[in-house]
Amino acid sequence: MNLMRLLRGDTDAPEWYDFPGGVHPPENKTQSLRGPIAEFPLQEEYVVPLNQHIGAVSVPVVEVGESVLTGQVIAEAAGFISAPAHAPTSGTVTAIEDRPVPHPSGLTTGCIIIRADGHDTWRPRTPWAHLQDHHHTDLLARIQNAGLTGLGGASFPTAVKLAADRNHVDTLIVNGTECEPYITADHALMRERPQQILRGIEVAHELYDFRRILIGVEDNKPDAVSALRRALTAIPAELEARIELRVFPTRYPSGGEKQLVYLLTGQEVPAGGLPTDLGMLCHNVGTLAALADAVFDDRPLISRITTLTGNQLPWQGNIEVRLGTDIRTILDWAGYQPDPNRAERIIMGGPMMGFALDQRQLPLVKATNCLLVPTEQELPTPPPAKPCIRCGQCEQVCPAGLLPQQLMWFAQSHEWDKAESHHLFDCIECGACAYVCPSHIPLVQYYRFAKGSIRREQAEHRQSERARLRFEARQARLEREAAEKEARRRQRAEAARARQAEQATTPTADSSPADPVAAAVARSKARKQASQSAAGRATATVSPGAPELTREQLSARLDSQRRRLEKAEAKLAAAAPEHQKAMETTVSKLREQIHKTEQQLADRPEREA
Amino acid sequence: MIILWSILALLFLAALFGALLGYASVRFKPEGDPIIDQIDDILPQTQCGQCGYPGCRPYAEAIANGDPINKCPPGGESTIQELADLLDVEPLPLDAEHGEEKPKQVAIIREDECIGCTKCIQACPVDAILGAAKQMHTVIASECTGCDLCVDPCPVDCIDMVPVETSIQTWHWQAPQPDYKLIATDAGRSGEAA
Amino acid sequence: MLTPSSPHAVGNQSVQQVMFSVWAATLPGFAALIWFFGWGYLINAVLAVATALVAEAIILRLRRRPVWFFLGDGSALLTAWLLALALPPLAPWWIPVIGTLAAIVFAKHLYGGLGNNPFNPAMVGYAVLLISFPVEMTTRWGIPAALATEAHSLLDSARVIFAGLRVDPALVDGMTMATPLDVYKNDIATLDAAELRAEPLFSAGWRVYGWEWVSGLYLLGGLYLLWRRIITWHIPVAVLGSLTLLALLFSWNPDLRVPVDLHLLGGATMLGAFFIATDPVSAATSNRGKLVFGAGIGILIYVIRTWGNYPDAVAFAVLLMNFAAPLIDHYTRPRVYGEGRS
User: Fold this and answer.
1) A303-309 and A317-322: which strand pairing?
2) Which of A374, C48, C163, C271 would staple A379 via disulfide (CB 3.0–4.6 Å)?
């Protein structure tokens, strides 16, 4: 394409740049675009999971039994990368518990369950008419409190993206590509509410003052393009001058963030980096429309547009539905009849990147852009995998320029470091490789397995590193304590030796050297005294090496020993026969101790004075 | 004459390389023993002592001195494999004498039963138990290595080792199973690695 | 509980289809072979395919793999088929049988079966035969029908193949010869180009000489595979390009060396470039790698044909480059999106 342009001598900046790879799966978009977006009726119960976004799980701020109003915050963001959740309708919180949620693992997670009162009474709202009347800090806070996440499928908190450094961002990329087959939620939005998207752009522009704003749409959505063009004529000229609407050929996965950045600008997001590294922000059209709702109408993210499609559904189209609505109820509403002859397959998301849901009741979440219930003819079950014949088709279609089959070999043989050096983490899991694989190898699952294993290994390694540090710190502490103890012991021993020497020399100095017997008696007396006082110290719970006890200390000890004796006697009286003996010993020991202390106390006065 | 020259040349070369080697051995003398650090890095740092050494580093030193690499139950097969790769020896099966490979565990103190004896605190090799004498103790779960050294000293048996369960946050995809293994003629070889 | 990972949509290609398409693409060339050189090729093909299927089934059984699942992928069939196309049509019956056994048992399954063989199985079979039985492999090529003194039936071919020299040496002599490449290479030492071109084998022109037709139809089949996107252009273009370039450089004087048209059309070049070298299992994978791989094959074909002992060289060239494929892959990794651009 670019070569052709060169040959024509066309040197102007091209409308779009050709990214490598990609596939053309059947689009299957028309069946869900026949009618306008339908409003899904209110339900009796809503289940709001606490982890509808990438990042930390939000924290409930309501209690069971509390009544809530539509749009009220029921769970707050926990930390920077997180998002709050709101009551989808007014009602009562009936439970906060673990429930199954749409997730490939099939595991449960914390959810707030709300029983609707049917009135759908909104919390008080304060709409804004003009952005210019408000400070940026207030605007950002409003966005943060609205619980917005990327509605394209990845569910990254929008407020976090919009917190990027103002000085480094000059381009807004608006993703209206919706390249995945079947899904038409963004298409329907662009067709019916283009002005809402442009108002969302206005909000982002207010924050960043973009130099240029590029809207990218695939050429299979001509009605969306013309609706956007019409809407563009109605916005302020200052903003309109910076907006470019770019239409490019349909090819999966042109809507991948990195692919779209290249398509529109010819620049590549650095490996492991973000579009902000190139001074770009990338937002999905649905997210921008929700941003406009949140900022102008003070309407947090409590509903979204979801595509219902697949030939197993008699009604196919787009619905605007409150988050937390039961997916089964939605499918029943669309007339879904399970085919008794085959295993049920309900896919959340599209056929290329979505995941299959199980039989249970699951709530619709912020990421649910599509519910696809295909027949076996539409999306046949993949045949069993054959060995890789190294045909290289996967490599031809990989939009990231990876070697998919090499990555698969590495994943199979658990060679994680090789997988990483072959850029496993640059894989966007678009599934183009597995789509074309003639051996029908579940390549993407291998990559996910490898990525998950590597992440877990890294986490384990971090943890073991921390354990090592803690162990070493403890080891050092124990050594230090032992050394200190040893030093104290030596000090004590020296002091004792010194005392002994003193005691030994004093008598010899005083008494006549002609009286060795008297000296020996005195020495033995001194020894006895020393050992007696040591025994006294041992029975007392005072730390060894402390100086001789004062009178006050001794009497305090006496008091406490008497108290203990009292208690022990009381216990002895109440004790069961089998404990009687033990208690008796305790009591007699205590009595002995008291006796000793009394003696010591009696000895003390003369020295004390 | 030629012989003389060649002997001289060889002598010169020998002296030169000897000097080079001598210089290198002094100049690039390794600080500590890097192989012990590398082994220690692979060990799981549970400090559980199941290997018979008082901690992971002593075992690392023992391995460097020729001790078998299969005495670490918490690390299990993967650690043995890594050690075998590092030391270029045959991987051995885990020595059952030192215990079995178990899923990762964490200690939990049944707090109403705790009498505050501090025995577990003294036993914990990574200081992951908080508490004081006569006060209830608790385990810092994120720091617990699951070594279970605190279980035995507890006089009232109020410490449970519970396996760490997978949550949505820690879950990840498993490797696909090759479909053809499920076909009848393959039934006999299910134990064989792919 | 685990649900299968995305993508849930799969493309419409399968291993069987790939193998079948490659097989189908050889059919015009195969038909031309029979048309010009007699029924020997058909007998070869039947022998080779039957041997391959039986050997594959037995080995799968021994390896305790599901037999029908793997037999149905068509890879053994294609290996045997390509080998049969490359073998001299009137060689004794045990030539295709031994060659196929070597290809399936040694080159394929002893390395782990489909997808794991580092060398092209058909070419391993061919090389084993050429080294072990050089006489049978060089002298039992078919005489183009137009040059033969009398027409030969399927039965004659069968007699030559199954009974051979001991029974009917005259018939064998009457039906077999060396390949034109071989003839030209040997005779140019004593004759000049004009004299050689006057020989019946080279003078009869396009319609009878046969090899050109076969090569042309292989080219057509190769273009079909390109159109179906079963192969990419890189390997064939590199093989043919490098061979042509070398032939133009070193064979500019037809009095000394085999000229370029014979290089391209007179031997197994087209079969090799489109059907053998493009075997994905043993070739390089990245696009740049395929160019290097193909160019290497082209160069080796020319070098071995010109300065080596063997009249044709596709098998050895492919095998030698199979050795190099992992190395080529290592040095020709494509640039990953977002990695610094030079």
Assistant:
1) antiparallel
2) A374
